[in-house]
User: Fold Chaperone protein HtpG from Thalassospira profundimaris.
Amino acid sequence: MTEEKMRFEAEVSRLLDIVVHSLYSNKDIFLRELISNASDACDKLRYEAIAKPELLAGDAEFKVRLLTDNVRNVLTIADNGIGMNKADLIDNLGTIANSGTAKFLDAVSKSDNAKDVDLIGQFGVGFYSAFMVASQVDVLSKKAGEDQAWKWSSDGKGEYTVAEAEMEGHGTQITLHLTDEFKEFTEEYRLRHIVKTYSDHIGIPVVLMKADGDETLNEASALWTRPKSEVTDEQYKEFYKHNSHAFDDPWKTIHYQAEGAIEYTGLLYLPTMRPFDLYDPQRKGHLKLYVRKVFITEGADELLPPWLRFVSGVVDSQDLPLNVSREMLQHNPVLTKIKNGLTKKVLSELETAAKKDGEGFDKFWETFGSVVKEGLYEDQSNRDRILKIAKFRSTKGDGWTTLAEYVERMKEGQKAIYYISGEDIDALKRSPQLEGFAAKGIEVLLLTDPVDEFWMPSVGQFEEKDFKSVTRGGADLNDVKSDDNEDSKDEKKDDTASDASLDALIASIKIALGTGVKDVRESDRLTSSACCLIADEMGMDLRMERLMKQHNRVDEISPRILEINPKHSLIKKLSDVAIKDAKAPILHDAALLLLDQARILEGEALPDPVSFARRLDLIMEKGLGA
Assistant:
């Protein structure tokens, strides 16, 4: 027998070190992970055997077997599932192909809290938990339909071996050579307790092999087929962790049976933590599809829309054929009706939670709101329901608000729902474009999710109130009654540059900036800042255009409108210079500095930082010499 020695890839070595030394406080978890993997292997073979019955080779009674040897301190977990060949062993156990692993390791390295790193199952690497309790792990496996068996062995310290082996039947046997510290995992009572606690929901028998007769340790019936009254909260939680490879507890559990023209059972979970692939561009779902308890496929996009891709669980249909293919799923009218029913059920659960569990819903929205809002853009049939539960940050305190609550607080004369978008909420609160709105007591929504740029123009309005960006023209602030009823236009005018001098300054700035701006004009939205950039009323919003450029959808950022504050002391002084000498050299440099200042406030890179620094030096030098 030729034995081939290989090294783990770097990420696996790092992961093993974390698993062995610091990951789990509860060592029982390793058995749950290995039994879960064995169950999945049986599910996969059951599905493959629909088209190729010969794969079962007379061994159609699926089970997971536990064998103990407390003399040699050995525990074996065996299944008669799909099995693995040499390539599978290397790909699955020696290399982590899952792109989320790097993210997991990065999260662990930055975390100071052990609870934050109890995520290994989410990344599909639960097998490595075996090294918490074992000094050596041997995996003997033969893939269904193949003749050659293979043995994989490792002590978890950087290397592993793969060699040809002999094995009767198909499946996988994982043998753990337990360290003396964990001899307890060969004791029958200990195994019985662990399986009952963590794996009672497994749909195939977990059998303890004993000299005096084998003992089935679990219920061995699919959890979703049981009546709700017979399932405990703990069983629901454990099934969620098994099915989703998660370590958090679910926020909501939805278990129901649809009857009528189409019959199906749904067991859905709303998580408390984000799946690692939540923002993966493929936007794959996390539901498993069964047909009459036979596993068909995982991540079926046809079961829920992409904006609900964080929902996990199972759907078991009575009306689909057992030999249904992926191609058939994409165009199956039964599945379309199931998808509509599941979507409505999840939305109903969210609507109820929004009314009855405000604090819990706020936490949910903080975690998943950015994904749910994708439905506002792409799911017109459910748009109104999503819009009513959607929550937002605003300039009205630090909490969340709904659009209905915003509308109730609108000022007299206010005709639109105002918003501003950007990458950072604290930076948004300091935006100069908000100053005039704050002075009038007008609430502004603070949007930090990129998807907001897409659904806002698509939806257009809420309760007949248009959405308007404060970084665009046409704010109509003069129509809104101010909180300060004593202010008058005449009193405000006394504190501004004269119309003639302001016009002279604007003309001078336009000449200096040329095509660098679309226009220069007086601002009614600024109260303390000297200037700001805005988009034209009919143009693309500032952040939207930046996003488009980042994704190469536009070549260049289009020229903006520069608004200047006639009440600002700098603008008044520059206006005085302009009315005396419109060609004064300082006006040219000041105009370019104002534009660069406005760009900085928008978080944009300056096109010419060297020239900006030079002009700033000159202005400061003149100021110090005055």
Notes: DSSP finds 21 helices and 23 strands in the chain. Residues 391-479 form a domain with the Rossmann fold fold (CATH 3.40.50.11260). The longest helix spans residues 333-356.
